[in-house]
Structure formats: C-alpha cells, structure tokens
Amino acid sequence: MARADVTAVTVTLDALPWIERCLESLRGLETIVVDHGSVDGTLELVRERFPDVRVVEQENTGYGAGLNAGMRVASGRYFLIVNSDAWAVGDAVDRLAAFAEEHPEVAVVAPRLQNPDGSLQRSVRGFPTLWRLATEYFFLRKLAPRSRLLNAFYAGDFDHDQAREVEWVMAACFLVRREATDEVGLFDEDFFMFSEETDWLYRFHLAGWHVWFVPDAEVVHVGGATHGGRMFPENVRGHVRWFAKHRGPRAAARARRLLLVALRLRALVFRDERGRMYRDAARALR
C-alpha cells in the first residue's frame, strides 16, 4: 500500500499493545500520530519502530480535537481516520480511496469492521431521534434487534454485506475527502468523545455530501480498547449535546429527561459495577 493522496491520522493515549499493528497496516501512507500524554511506552515504540510517522504531542482536549490536529498538518487529498486499536486488512485503504475517486459526491467511505475473532462488528448507525434513543436506553431493541422500527439507531435491518449509502458510521475507521472537510469544517471540539462523528457526518449530510459503507474493504477493530468503557457518562452527555446543536434546546431537554429516566431504571435493575456506571452517568447528566 503506497498512496501519496491518503494521510492516515490516529490519536493515542496509552495505546499499547495495538498501536504497532495499526501502524504496520498503514506503511506506505503518510501517517500522523497525535498523542495525548501516553506514559506506557507508546511514543517510544512509535519513534523506534516507525521513524517515518509524524508525531504530534498535545494536551488531551478530546478525541475530535486530536484528529483535527492531525488533519491540519496532513497533506493528502483524503484523510484516513483510524483508531489506534484498529488495523487495515490487505488493500482496504486502496479500496476505500478507489471508491471515493469513482464517486466524487461522497464525503465519507467506511469499511466493514471485524472483531479480532473475524466476526462482524456492526458499525452503521442512524441519526439520533428521541424514539431511537428510547429504543436503545430502554432496551427495546432487544425485542427485535433486526427491526428498523425498534433498532434503527444501530441499523438493525442492515446486514453489512452490501455497499450502500448510510446515515453515519462509527469513527473506528473511515476515509474522508479533504474537499468536503474544507466545506463543512473539522470535528466540533465541544464533543470531547462520543457523538463527534455523529455531528460531523450529519453536517456532511446537511451540506449535500454522501456517506457510503463499502464491505469489500475490511478493518479489524478491537473495540473499547482505547477507553475501556470508562467514558460512558461522556457518551450520554454527547447525545444531549447533539440534540442541543441540531434540534434545539427543547429537544435537548427532552433527550436529557429520557436518558435520566432510562439510566435510573437501569441502575435499579443492575446492582453491580454496571449499575454504578449508570448512576454515575445520571449524575453527569444532572
């Protein structure tokens, strides 16, 4: 893989052990690592094993802010956004870039994500609505996980086996056209972590750009390795921020109330560490 028109950008914060495999899969690309204060040997490994990788060190002001820092110094016509716990399989990047070249109206091209065991990692999503939040946080989607009615937030009716235009996708890995970012801007840094890609891809949608899922490009994603589930309160806050930005203060207030009720119910059902996580998230919303 050697493409002068693609710049890979990844953000690290104590990214061992996966960052080495990530960067190995990106050899031949201009690659930028934005580090947010790693103390586990990540930077030492990157500098020793990957001397061609450009390292940017900065304070941790959020995942989107880190990606923005990398994109601002990138030279490619396309940005490959990739988590530090994800790696491209074979010629996945070439396939993503080829699709983008053939479809100039597309801003974002996303690969099929796999878990490390080779199973599918569902990555296609639907833009938030109050109903879609309810189906997720009240566990309604468990009743019919493949139903669009009860699981549109996770695109439950989509099998991830066909190329298709979608609403938005997880930011574990996708290719972004620089021309589109020049029009709509980079990540909104008010989103510290979670919902930043929902906001970004919604802004592409509003500007008339398209987002496509392309399953013949494959990327392995460990999933949760970069935050270990510790950021759940930020996840629910991100939903409220998204509603405040795109639906207004009344919708944001309704989303907050819905989430508070759901989280309190969850905390009653789960009395262990999981229940404490839900209680912490409810306190964060208050």
SS element count, helices: 11
- Our Rg estimate from Cα atoms comes to 19 Å
User: Which structural class is indicated by helix and strand composition?
Assistant: alpha/beta
Q: In sequence order, what are the helices and strands, one letter per element?
A: EHEHEHEEHEEEHHEEEHHEHHH
Mean pLDDT: 95
Overall morphology: globular
Quick one: how many beta strands? 12
Helix content: 25-40%
Structure description:
Helices cover 40% and strands 22% of the residues. The protein is of the alpha/beta class. Strands 1, 2, 3, 4, 5, 6, 7, 9, 11 and 12 form a 10-stranded mixed beta sheet that branches. Helix 2 (42-49) links the parallel strand 2 and strand 3. The radius of gyration is 19 Å and the shape is globular. The termini are far apart. The mean pLDDT is 95.
Task: Give a topology summary.
Layout lengths: L2 E10 L6 H6 L4 E7 L6 H8 L4 E4 L5 H10 L5 E5 L3 E3 L3 H11 L3 E9 L5 E2 L2 E2 L4 H8 L10 H4 L12 E2 L2 E2 L3 E5 H7 L11 H11 L3 E12 L10 H15 L2 H21 L3 H13 L1
Parallel strand pairs: 1-2, 1-4, 2-3, 6-12
Antiparallel strand pairs: 4-11, 5-12, 6-7, 6-11, 8-10, 9-12
What's this entry about, in short?
The protein is an alpha/beta fold and 286 residues long. The protein has helices at residues 19-24, 42-49, 63-72, 92-102, 130-137, 148-151, 178-184, 196-206, 232-246, 249-269, 273-285, and strands spanning 3-12, 29-35, 54-57, 78-82, 86-88, 106-114, 120-121, 124-125, 164-165, 168-169, 173-177, 210-221.
Tag the structure with descriptive keywords.
single chain, about 290 residues, alpha/beta, ten-stranded mixed beta sheet, two-stranded antiparallel sheet, globular
